[in-house]
Amino acid sequence: MRIGKIKTTMLLGSLGLGICTNLIAQPPIYKTVDENGNITYSDNPPDKDSKPYQLPSINSQPAHSTEGFPKAREKTTTQATENYYISIASPADDQAIPPGQLSVSIVGSIEPAPKEALTFELVVDGSVALTGSSPTFVLSPLLRGTHIASIRAIDKDGNLVTASNNITFHVIRPNVSN
User: Fold this and answer.
1) Any idea what DSSP says for residue 91?
2) CB 63 within 8 A of CB 168
3) pTM of whole model > 0.70?
4) What does the alpha-carbon distance between residue 167 and residue 7 come to, in Å, rounded to a whole number?
5) pLDDT tens digits along 8-53
6) Which CATH number is 85-171's, of 2.60.40.10, 3.30.420.40, 3.40.50.300, 2.60.40.1120?
7) 27-36, long-range: CB within 8 Å, 24+ apart, which pairs?
8) Element (H, E) at 22
9) Where is this region: Disordered (predicted)?
10) For 153, which DSSP code?
11) Residue 2 — very low, low, confident or very high, per pLDDT cuts 50/70/90?
């Protein structure tokens, strides 16, 4: 298991524990404004007649469904005489795409070099995002969140020749608070 996956597992476990704790015991929040306009939030009521303040809902994004994602394939062939293998060199699996980066290059390679013309499809989150004559694509615009990508090779008859393993990448965008 890679260090990044261990950290992710620990982070998700801590987050889950925090959410469960929040659901069990969430004290009311009180808001007070002093004579200078300074706002203070507290779980202690400033006086006995205070009423709890209703906090706005948090900004969240639902998780992506994995239904419909292409399955990882080692070497998949049709009736072709060659066994082809596609790999994705960039971005690395589980890579974060930083704020400000507006596109990402998905760089793949196929071995051995095809003897016939193939069409390549970039599949992102279960849907074909781009097609081309080489296994290299530039994906733009990038939406915030976690995405799963793979590359498929298709022959002239529309048959799947081979597909890469899935990679995951995370597009990080700053949150805008109200």
Assistant:
1) S
2) no
3) no
4) 18
5) 666 666 666 666 555 555 678 888 888 888 888 788 887 777 778 7
6) 2.60.40.10
7) 28/52, 28/53, 29/53, 29/55
8) helix 3-24
9) 36-76
10) E
11) low
